[in-house]
Design brief:
The protein is mostly beta strands and 195 residues long. It is 3% helix and 45% strand. The protein has one helix and 16 strands. A hairpin with a 2-residue loop joins strand 8 and strand 9.
Length: 195
């Protein structure tokens, strides 16, 4: 859990990104992969679509995929990239799965230009659950990265293997500003490094 209290500048609330790899071990009901306490979350929904929502000024803005994700043998790389300063509405919240941008949504609503995400830094960011412990994630998570003041693109954190053509992780070498953080989860006694 990471608490960003005291780091809630206007620029950070307008532009931020999250990247992680996850693998499902159970398909049943909604499961929360990542959440901003109770003001936003990334989830596998009960119908196996992926949903991202974030609150702006009391109004929920969301991307809910048309595609479903039911393969429990696969690792999914998910990037949520936010920049409300963008003039094009659809560029203010972007969702990428395994290096490809999702553009076909059951529902899509976007924040107003220059809107600030509600409580994105004032409360804990949670991996694997919604605030209060409900709808916990069933599966594995690896290479979790949160960056402030950056709108990631997939090639910042992933690449296609030259031999297999499979999408795979790569080290992020871009801008890091406080309070960004990275958890690699390779070692149970040292989950990652805080940047």
């Amino acid at each position: 859990w990471t608490n960003f209290s005291g780091n809630a500048s206007s620029a950070r609330k307008k532009k931020f990104s999250m990247s992680l790899w996850c693998k499902r071990t159970k398909i049943a009901g909604q499961t929360i992969i990542w959440s901003t306490a109770q003001n936003g979350y990334l989830s596998f929904e009960a119908d196996d679509e992926i949903k991202w929502f974030q609150t702006y000024g009391g109004s929920q803005k969301k991307l809910n995929t048309t595609r479903v994700f039911r393969d429990m043998t696969a690792w999914y790389h998910i990037v949520v990239a936010v920049d409300s300063t963008q003039s094009t509405e659809a560029h203010r919240m972007r969702l990428y799965i395994n290096g490809v941008e999702e553009t076909d949504f059951v529902s899509a609503t976007y924040p107003d230009q220059n809107a600030e995400a509600q409580n994105i830094y004032e409360q804990h960011l949670l991996l694997g659950e919604w605030g209060g412990g409900a709808s916990g994630f069933n599966g594995y998570v690896a290479d979790y990265l949160f960056v402030s003041e950056v709108q990631l693109v997939p090639t910042d954190v992933g690449e296609y293997d030259e031999d297999s053509g499979i999408w795979k992780p790569k080290n992020y070498t871009g801008t890091i500003s406080s309070p960004s953080h990275f958890l690699e989860f390779k070692d149970g006694s040292d989950l990652g490094t805080a940047t």
